[in-house]
Amino acid sequence: MNEILKQIDLGSGDTTFKRYLLEEFVEDYEDGKMTRRDALKKIAGLLGSVAIANSILAACAPAPTPAPTAAPKANTATTASATTAPTSASVNVSPSDPDIDAKAIEISATGATLFAYLARPKKDGAYPAILVCHENRGLVEHIKDVTRRFAKVGYVALAMDLVSREGGTEKLGDRATSLLGNINPDQFVADFKSGLAYLANQSFVAQGKFGMTGYCFGGGVTWRSATQIAELKAAVPFYGSNPPLADVPKIQAAILGIYGGTDTRINAGIPEIEAALKASNKIFEKIIYDGAGHAFHNDTGGSYNANAAKDAWAKTLAWFEKYVKA
User: Fold this and answer.
1) Among 161, 216, 290, 297, which one carries the catalytic annotation?
2) How many domains does the chain have?
3) Residue 133 belongs to domain spanning
């Protein structure tokens, strides 16, 4: 299937995320996580052709019975074990939690108004800030919850809506996914630069203390942003596609890459990015959770792995404590 997908004409310009989404849709269909109808709709929306979408799906292996919603527990990681993490306590933080302020905001950018979600500790003070990049569904409630989790532990967190110019996630619904694949990746970085500029003007933000994280599609955007936003002190991309390797020397952030052991599509890129970072003497560590797959951190999805997610969250906070708060 990979060879067939490589032959698909994705158009001109930088099609990195367009190809990423195409491969993800096909993988989800072949793994039984997406019906043929949904796969056809998403691929056709991404490529602008029902005929091409049909031809791609016709070449796919028959989709198996949809996978159960409970993912297998993680066993080990390269630098930590996820086997002892408790799974009973809720990880979610309510918008009305008394310790935080959380709300939708708008940020002015060149030629556009950007939608975003801001969460911060309610107690007065200046706090380090984390940029949060959403998955391929846009700025949905799960990502808003992640920003609130950061606020709960003492960070200002800002999640940008990367389809703001197209109307925003709330308006677009499922169409946001396909639209993301047809936006120039440099625009994603520019929007996070606008978000950073907004944070730099807020009295409740500790200046010079910025980090970034993102998940799936957002992991790739986090990698790309790390190559272009020098103000980032640390970045934690979750199972994200690699940035252009030629841009790796420009990274200033300390990088913690988090991966699922069964996520073979993304993990195939680890040796290249690891070698490039090492050659440029960058700070980099990786964690691979055995038994966990792509999107294991998302507690609203079928690939959620509570043990791996809890451990990865703890490792994320420790990384930001060391490189952003310090």
Assistant:
1) 216
2) 2
3) 100-325
